[in-house]
Design brief:
It is built from 13 helices and 10 strands. It has helices at residues 19-29, 45-52, 64-77, 79-83, 97-105, 122-141, 145-201, 207-264, 276-286, 299-305, 325-333, 352-361, 373-400, and strands at residues 11-15, 35-39, 56-59, 87-92, 111-114, 268-272, 292-296, 313-317, 343-347, 365-368. The longest helix is centred in the middle third of the chain and has 58 residues, at 207-264.
Length: 401
């Protein structure tokens, strides 16, 4: 995997008690990071941290004891150090590698680099910083397992709530239905009696006014009481509906929150291309759109990456020095875990045999080099949207079994 073509937008704070050491390390880091700062004044431990709010704190003291003391003092004195998400990397010498390992294992620090008394492995230091920044980027962009679990637990209560309210609602509906049928029968009987009386008595002596008065009396004495009785019976049903709606509010909110959290998940796109310039182009197009973009410089490197990462989409270059894109796709698709992984071919060739071979290998779409921004954005979005829908349909079919 190659590093991202763009320089990480992260802040790094080097803490040391030796200005020369701090400057030496800053010179190394400046080659790949823009926002690198040094803190060497003991009385400014808190001020420097809270001013810079670093993503990564690099402890560059000449002993582990000094690094431990510094970080303990920082966490003790600064509330922000305890609440601001950051990573801590400690430099150590050969004699303290074992202890540095134990401290990281116990999560006192996040990583260590064998550095003193000379820069034995400067790229290792740079790689440790890149990994720390990637981890933080993923944490910022994606909901945590705890966040998902909290909302899922809320939704899991919905089944019990539904069973309870459905049973209660059925009882209330049966009561209301029975009352309605009774009222209907009684009103029907009253109307029949009213009609019978009218037929026996003949037209009222007082004409139309008398008929209206007689009907009003019938309505007041026979119809209205039964309607009021029905309203009284249906009142508990209305209360049940209102109560059910209120109890559903937090669960509906949880469902919406889960949906929002799902939208926050960064789709991962693996770009397989040996051309640094093409990687830079893709990075500038996709990374600002909240895609997590990984890179492989060859087909074999891509297959190696797939041992540890499951991307949502692979952008595959056709022409590569070791294994070409078509053969890489064949090998990828031969692995059961990646049989359904969408692959889009990036190529400057449009010959019919290339297209046919690519489709037979498992490629689902093509993008022509030089890559056009709107075309790439549209195709990537469409493929990921289709993949998401297919997964949802597959899950529904499984749930229906």
């Amino acid at each position: 995997m190659m590093g991202k073509p763009s320089r990480p937008a992260a802040t790094i704070l080097i803490a040391s008690d030796n200005i020369a050491d701090g400057e030496l390390i800053k010179t190394i880091l400046d080659a790949e990071f823009d926002n690198v700062f040094i803190s060497t004044a003991p009385d400014r431990i808190v001020e420097d941290f809270e001013l810079r709010r670093p993503n990564v704190l690099l402890l560059a003291f000449d002993s582990l004891e000094k690094s431990e003391h510094y970080y303990h003092a920082l966490r003790t004195r600064s509330n922000e150090a305890g609440t601001t998400e950051h990573r801590v990397i400690v430099l150590c010498d050969k004699n303290n590698i074992g202890r540095a390992y134990q401290l990281c294992k116990k999560e006192r620090f996040h990583d260590y680099v064998f550095f003193w008394p000379m820069t034995h492995d400067a790229p290792r230091l740079l790689m440790s910083l890149h990994l720390a920044i990637r981890e933080l980027t993923m944490l910022d962009a994606s909901p945590t397992a705890e966040e998902f679990a909290a909302q899922a637990r809320r939704l899991s209560e919905m089944e019990t709530l539904l069973h309870k309210h459905v049973a209660h609602g059925n009882r209330e509906i049966e009561i209301a239905d029975s009352a309605m049928r009774k009222a209907e029968r009684e009103i029907g009987a009253a109307l029949d009696e009213f009609s019978r009386q009218l037929a026996q008595e003949g037209p009222p002596d007082v004409g139309e006014h008398g008929l209206t008065k007689k009907f009003d009396s019938f309505k007041q004495n026979e119809i209205d009481p039964r309607l009021r009785s029905f309203e009284e019976v249906t009142q508990p049903l209305k209360l049940w509906i209102d109560g059910f709606s209120q109890e559903c509010v937090p669960h509906i909110k949880a469902a919406r929150t889960l949906n929002e959290m799902a939208d926050r998940l960064q789709p991962t796109v693996l770009v397989v291309d040996d051309d640094d310039f093409q990687q830079t182009i893709v990075a500038k197009i996709l990374e600002p759109l909240n895609y997590r973009v990984l890179y492989a410089e060859s087909g074999l490197a891509a297959l190696e990456i797939l041992r540890n990462v499951r991307p949502d989409l692979v952008l595959m270059d056709l022409m590569m020095p070791d294994v070409n894109g078509i053969e890489t796709t064949r090998r990828l698709k031969a692995m059961p875990a990646f049989a359904n992984l969408p692959v889009m071919m990036m190529t400057g060739k449009s010959e019919g045999d290339i297209v046919i071979e690519s489709l037979q290998a498992g490629v689902i779409d093509f993008v022509v080099k030089p890559v056009e921004r709107e075309t790439l954005i549209g195709k990537v979005a469409q493929i990921l949207r289709t993949t998401k829908m297919n997964r949802a349909l597959a899950q529904k079919k499984w749930d229906d079994l």
